[in-house]
Amino acid sequence: MRSYSLRLRLLVAGAVSVLFALAIAAAGISWLFAAHVERRALAELSVQLDQVLSGVERDAEGQIFLSNRPADPRFHRPLGGLYWQISVEGRLLRSRSLWDHEIPLPVDELPDGGEHVHTLEGPGGQSLLTVERSVILPPRLRETPMRAAVAVDRADLQAASRDFASDLLPFLLILAVVLILAMAAQVTIGLRPLGRVEARLGAIRSGQSRRLGEDFPTEVIPLASEVDALLSEREEEISRAGMRAADLAHGLKTPLQALLGESGRLRANGQESHADAIEETVETMRGHVDRELMRARASLHRETASCDIAQVLEAVLRVLRRSAPGDERTWSVHVEPMLSARADAGDLTEILGAVTENAARHATSRIRIDASRVGQNVEISVEDDGPGIPPDRLAEMTRRGVRADESSPGSGFGLAIASELAEALGGGLELHPGTPGLSVRVTLPAAPAQS
């Protein structure tokens, strides 16, 4: 199954949105600037056209000429990018910048003083922004109709727009970085409640807490409430299941006891084979009943139970040191301070009692017990210096009724019960060869340190 990071998806989506928005903004600003430059150019062309028209005069021979030429040096430089042209009485007057070219004005009708704006092809293939005006000269100039035009090379306007875009780009990049960083901070702050939810769930799993609570933002409260409701339902279901298992197990004890009585009567009548078969079946069923009772008891308080390892171990060893063969052994105990397991004290007593009693029974003289926290678990190691168990038999030693030494006293149920109870508490029991002897390692979930 593929895993997706909500934070990464939000950051990528936000970054793409910021870049897309800034790209649109850059395009829009550039377009607006280009439109502004064109409007300014048209306004300047109109002023230039006024200057051209104001200089129109007739000489002594009655010919139209321009007495006062515009001062802009581009009018006087060939292909300078700024041009004027006058069409009057079949003659064409033009700026030096046009050289021998002509602005190809379209054929149209203009009222006196009317203006048209064109984009026309100029000298050298230039694209010209052109303002054309039709005027009728005053009476002193014989009221002659005239068409005048002033044009500028669009390349200059486009260069101004490109320069503006180049100047704008660094600021947009800086703005993009600032916005993305601000968005990252916003995402981090916005997702922080989910981190608190994760921490609370970890506390629930470790037994430090039982519910998420409601001290979350409004949007997270429904999630926390649903999780708390689910936890409550789970606890109730576990409690009901444990009680049903316990009721069933207790209900089976009486019929099993009756079967044992029946086997006794069969044995008294000489039917030992039938009695042995019934007793074997009863013992098997009793093992299942005891195991289910143990699991039910462990599950009822598994989430909230907590006990101090050192105290339980001290109580177990106090009994063993007063009875044989524990009183003949040397006990070396090393327990990490403030070490607690998530288990009921009675359950842990039963586990450690079975393991330490087995060690005392098989040890030669010494028994070493170590308890420490490893990650989220507690590990308790009990190692004796006895003859040990062949490695190929270690796996079967946690099965009920199996013993390493058939000649020694015992039922073979101790390690099996301890293993089953440790598993019911969420841990386990493992056997390893010792140096010498046998090493039994019990693993249980760690409980929060008691303050």
Automatic annotation (TrEMBL):
Classification via Gene3D superfamilies: 1.10.287.130, Histidine kinase-like ATPase, C-terminal domain
SMART domains listed in its UniProt record: HATPase_c (SM00387)
Compartment(s) where it occurs, according to its Swiss-Prot or TrEMBL record: Membrane
Transmembrane segments: 168-191
Keyword Cell inner membrane listed: no
Pfam families for the chain: HATPase_c (PF02518)
PROSITE patterns in the record: HIS_KIN
Residue stretches making up the Histidine kinase domain: 247-448
Keyword annotations from UniProtKB, A to Z: Kinase, Membrane, Phosphoprotein, Transferase, Transmembrane, Transmembrane helix
A single GO molecular function term of this UniProt record: phosphorelay sensor kinase activity
Reactions catalysed according to its record: ATP + protein L-histidine = ADP + protein N-phospho-L-histidine
Keyword Transferase included in the entry's annotation: yes
Domain of life (superkingdom): Bacteria
Alphabetical list of PANTHER family matching this protein: SENSOR HISTIDINE KINASE TRCS, SENSOR HISTIDINE KINASE YKOH
Protein name per Swiss-Prot or TrEMBL: histidine kinase
Lineage summary: Bacteria, Pseudomonadati, Pseudomonadota, Alphaproteobacteria, Rhodobacterales
